[in-house]
Amino acid sequence: MYDQILVPTDGSDTAEEAVEHALDLAERYGATVHALYVVDTNAMSLSLGGEQLDRIEQGHYGEMDEVRERAEKATGYVADRAGELGIDAVEHVSAGRPHDMIANYVAHNDIDLIVMGSHGRTGVRRALLGSVTERTLRSTRAPVLVIDSDNE
Ligand code: ATP
Ligand code: MN
């Protein structure tokens, strides 16, 4: 049923909790885990042109060292945890609106399950779901497992 599991991660504690659920399922199903970090062009103060977005997709960050660091830390965490458990993992970084890029990745990589956090880095706890999770639910027909963090 589940062969390709996507964990979109912004590197937050809640996303890291979702990673544990994704890995447990991957282990049971013999699935591959895909870690996706989206450089959020909505949230960035500097506005990036289309060319720069393409370069990020190809792993060329130029002067954007901080962007690279944050992206690689988030996906690297998933790859490291997967490696410890002997689970196949794929890391990917893209740039754009997170829910669009998540839906896009799902469509192009035969993803059959998405596992993500209820909240992320910028979350207001009062809201039931963060905006990326809410928009992802509206943007894809793939099943989505939402992990609520117990950190208040
Ligand atoms: P908001 O961003 O709406 O202020 P928030 O940061 O608490 O609130 P979301 O951004 O919706 O909540 O984060 C929920 C989950 O979505 C995270 O745990 C993570 O799984 C995923 N996510 C959020 N941002 C990204 C991103 N830039 N790239 C990949 N996954 C992300
Ligand atoms: Mn967020």
TrEMBL record:
Leader sequence segment: none
A Pfam match: Usp
Domain of life: Archaea
Domain UspA, chain residue ranges per copy: 1-147
InterPro entries: Rossmann-like_a/b/a_fold, Universal_stress_UspA, UspA
Similarity section: Belongs to the universal stress protein A family.
Protein name: Universal stress protein UspA
